[in-house]
Amino acid sequence: MSKISNIAIVGGTHGNEFSGIYLLKKWQQHPQLLARSSLSVETVFANPKAYGENKRYIDADLNRQFSASELADFSLANYEQSRAKVLHQQLGPKTNPNMDLVIDLHNTTSNMGPTLILLDQTPFDLQLAAYVKMLMPEAVVFLDEPEDDLANHRFLASCGRRGVLIEVGPQPQSVLRQDILEQMETMTGHILDFVDLHNQQQLPELPHSVEAFLYLDSIKLPLDEQGERIATVHSNVQDNDYQPINPGDPIFRTFTGEDICYEGDKTVYPAFINEAAYYDNDLAMSLLEKVRLELS
Amino acid sequence: MSKISNIAIVGGTHGNEFSGIYLLKKWQQHPQLLARSSLSVETVFANPKAYGENKRYIDADLNRQFSASELADFSLANYEQSRAKVLHQQLGPKTNPNMDLVIDLHNTTSNMGPTLILLDQTPFDLQLAAYVKMLMPEAVVFLDEPEDDLANHRFLASCGRRGVLIEVGPQPQSVLRQDILEQMETMTGHILDFVDLHNQQQLPELPHSVEAFLYLDSIKLPLDEQGERIATVHSNVQDNDYQPINPGDPIFRTFTGEDICYEGDKTVYPAFINEAAYYDNDLAMSLLEKVRLELS
Which residue, B167, B185, B207, sits at the end of a domain? Predict the structure, then answer.
């Protein structure tokens, strides 16, 4: 695998997810914290305007604007659509990226702990996941919806030759928690160390396989005929990200007190449970499959 | 004490505090849940425009606009200043209120559990607090900053002849949690029951005293000379609302890893720890004194 020379660490892709934004400030003041001998790191503040307004975004979710077709469509001109084209110039272009690796820092209101989200399942991605999980056993490896290739991916991190997200919660929007900040900083450090060891061909022996959760689907909150929500996420499920949901388990409680149960036919694992930002689309949670990835 | 005939239950004073807003919807569909024989209840959606934009407020915090002088100042004309004057017409006027009691429903991102906030310490308030705490031992009684009188109070609940707030957390902004919703509904029900029993002179024997927390002061996050935050709330304090902080205890952790300790000279009890909405003012937490209120 080729050397990873240029890394961008991106914070503030969502303006009210504070951990990455504060880490950028810290690293700009103390750049030696990011220094590794075999690589060069720059920090990028993706959506400063949304942060200034203490919002996730101004016009549209920035982290859904990076598919090749949207980047090529100059009629898409709102703030985040414009910002995406500029970030793609800076980090990409996807056809021949300036950045060998983009690390995009996110928070969730869900109890997902320190999660490493992979966009791809190349040997590099799997070795990275195994390394992070070896040094940080509480970390969770999350495999995003597979796309044909990164060119079609809508996430900011797909601008680089490789891209990953660090997603840490629970943290309310517009709040900074010490524990969450430290988890994000720790995982970022492990990724930089991994790349440096990879570049120097000095990786330690890694586990032969790593547990991960593969995105299957998202489920919506129950709505009435007028589109009004009639239930909340069930207390049995709330805060239990990555814990099994079995067929027949209650997953919602209606406002009049009835349970609504999971109707799938196999055990699934939820994440992004009751995430604040997903209310726009009435999403209740993502469902994932627990898998074991074999390192070849 | 005179009869309490007219009660307003107010939700959505802050547009991203969802529990009260959803309870209003539920009660409008099932008004029998609020019915008590000796009183009349109406529900009021205080800031629907902020809810529509999924924000705490449009122009200014609605729950700081209700002092007599601000209500009388017609040059204060932004959305919340205008809305406050209309709500004061509807619930007040303070000189001779339409409402004998205003119950204002709030959420916090802090781990405050179900908190009953009193604006006053009349025998009615203290009996109410003792009744709620007798039936809901996990409830906390919070005595707000004393004002000269309700006329000068800036909170919406001060529009009524009497006013209380129900403040329940932790719940991220723009999220609805089943557990928090149920705690708010339970406490509201106890308050209505109390008033009904009070009106009918059928109150049960109440405890002779009740534990409460009296607001003393708020403390700010440490800032540098440019006004930038240099620390977070310490992990030892985060989520430990109403747990003692002693002189010398660490309360902040700087971004470079040093502890900043509490410099007061007596034990205090924090609340609204790291509340998202208080970042505007760089507030880190409120400090309270634990007191015991004697029912005469």
Answer: B207
